Each structure stands twice: as structure tokens, then as C-alpha cells.
Amino acid sequence: MKILIVTHYFQPHVGGIEIVAYNQAKELVKQGHEVTIVSSRIGDEKEREIIDGIKVIRVKAWNFFEKKFGIPYPVFSLRLIKVLNEEVKNTDIVHVHDIGYLSSFMATLIGKTKKKPVVLMQHITTINKGLITNLIQKIVRLTYGNYIIKSSKKIIVCNELVKDWLNQKDKTIFLHNAGDINLFKPVTEKKKIELKKKYKLSLNKPVVLFVGRLVGKKGFDKLFEAKDKDYFILFVGDGEVPKYMKNQENTKFIKAKSQNKLAELYQLSDIFCLPSKNEGFPLTILEAMASGLPIITTGHEGYEHYLDRKYVKLIDSTPEEIKKTIKEVLNNKDEMLRISKYSREEAVNKFGWEKNVKSLLNVYSEVKI
Fold first, then answer.
1. What residues contact residue 304 under an 8 Å CB cut-off, 6+ apart?
2. Tens of pLDDT, residues 23-45
3. Domain at 279, CATH number
4. Domain that residue 200 falls in
5. What is this structure's pTM?
6. 72-107 in b/e burial notation, b at 16+ Cβ within 10 A?
């Protein structure tokens, strides 16, 4: 089968959709399918290259909104139309990620014109980021976003809240998100200490890890306010660090890392905390689970579909509640071991990419002409 995957960003840009697109494409290639990814070129990346058997085409795009406001919205050059025309013509399936992007709209429009089935993977609902951003999201949903939804043969979601938001029950399919359970895995205590030394972290305090963009919806500011002398908080992700957070005791900020280096940061940590808002089911939680970490995150609607409250701390994302929960976990070693074991076993049993792509291929088969 020939599959065209269209994303707003791709490697080396770091983000959840980029990781999903890459891992699904890699597994599809492994299973004998021909995969092309079309995405944006926002720096000096190669326009065309082969990555793990995946043909990657990047189209020049203007990235002002992300640089200035932290909004991931590349504005593509007109060359996108030519590239998509060529690639859609030679594919069996057009798979687009999220309705909010011009790349998804153009791929859907051209796919429909050329009578190629379109599969949409919708990762999130709207994000509450202020009056202007909320208005833009509403306009997108009512215009080309709605066109993508209506034109897609099948819609894949990994969160029940997204499914309800789309209101397309007849063609919406729930698919468990996935993580690399071979790369993200627990290590021995000896290895943990080696990694803490490598990254110049204190050996005397447990590490609470946050991974994500430094934007309000991720709740990094709430976690910062929950800092305490009894533990060290490590923030990993791109974005602007507010001045008042710089060079503070018991905290450290690190830029986003490659998957290999990120795996080490999970492995040296003791707890993963993501007090976010408006999430689907982020890959960072799966990566932390695969690494055997206890999880503290916001009690989003729909998480019960993935997570057992007996083993995962689903909380209100206030600094007071975050601090209280971190201390409760750290002070109960038996519970830490129990929920760490749950995290790893659940990731291995439910959330591998091979299982994810097997389900994805079933979706493709249903819509293939």
C-alpha cells in the first residue's frame, strides 16, 4: 500500500504529532508499505531525504507564529500545492494530522479532488489561549476544519473528549496512542546515578520530570510554583523561560532533546509530572510510563479510558495539590514501586507501535478504494 502522511511539522522539529507520524511511518515501512511524509521546511533542513525508509518532503514555510507567540502554525509557500498534487496522485491513502493546519486542508482538498480516501487523525480539541487565539480556532473549525472533518472517510482519535468534540460518531475510531517501549525503559539504580552525574544533577534529591513545550496549556508554571527543597524539578522543552524562573534553586530548564537523549532524562528521574490543560493523551505520559515512572497529571475527562486511578495520580493542577501529591508519592516507597511496575507493564501490554499500526492498517483497509 502507498500511504501519504501530511503533518504541519516533522523532524527535526520536536512535538507530539511529529513523533506519532514518524513512528507510525517507520512501522508501516517495516511491514512492507511505501510511505511518504510531506511537511514544512522552517529552517535549513533537507528538502528531500529518506529517513528509516520513509520518503520525507519538506516544503518551505514561514514560522512567525511559533517564534513570536509559541503557536505551532507554519504558513506554507504555494509550492505545497504542487508537491501535494504530485504525491496524492501516486498514493492509495491520504493521512492528515489535525484539522487546524493549512497542510491538512490542502491535502484533504486535493485528495478529494483526485478521489483518494482521506483519513484524519485528530489529536486535541481547542486550546484556551486567550480571546484572539480562541476566535481563530473557532473560525478554523467552522471553515476549513469542518471541511476536513466532513471529507474524511475515517477519523482517528486517542481520547474520548476529542471524539465528543468532533461529534462524528459514525466514522470516528478510537486508537490507543503508543510509545517506543524498547527505547523508553527502566534502568538500574546504578545507571540512574551515572545519568544524574552526566547531566550534572544532584545525587541527593529525587528528580521530578516535566517534558513539554513551555506554554501555558502544559502547566509548567504550576509545577514551578510547586518547587520544594525536598525534590528537584527538571523541565525539558522548548519555549521561553520566564525571567523569574531562571537560576532558581531545585529547578533546571533544558531545551528539547532527541528521543535517545530524552530517554536518558526519563531514566534518571523518579516521578513524571504533567499538570496540563486540554490534552489528548500526550506521548510524554506514555514515554514516562514505559520508563517505569509514577505519573502525576491533571484529571482530564477521558483519561480513565487509558489510566487506572489506583495507580496514576490524576489531580487538580494547582501548585498546592501538585506539591502535596509529589510528597505523598516520594514518602511511600512501597507505593512508588507498585505504581512504577504498573506504568511499565501497562505501556508494554497496551501501547507499543506495532499494535498501534496494526489497528491503523485496519482503518486504511476499510477506506481504501
1. none
2. 999 999 999 999 999 999 999 99
3. 3.40.50.2000
4. 189-350
5. 0.78
6. bbbebeeebeebbeebbeebbbbbbbbbbbbbbbbb
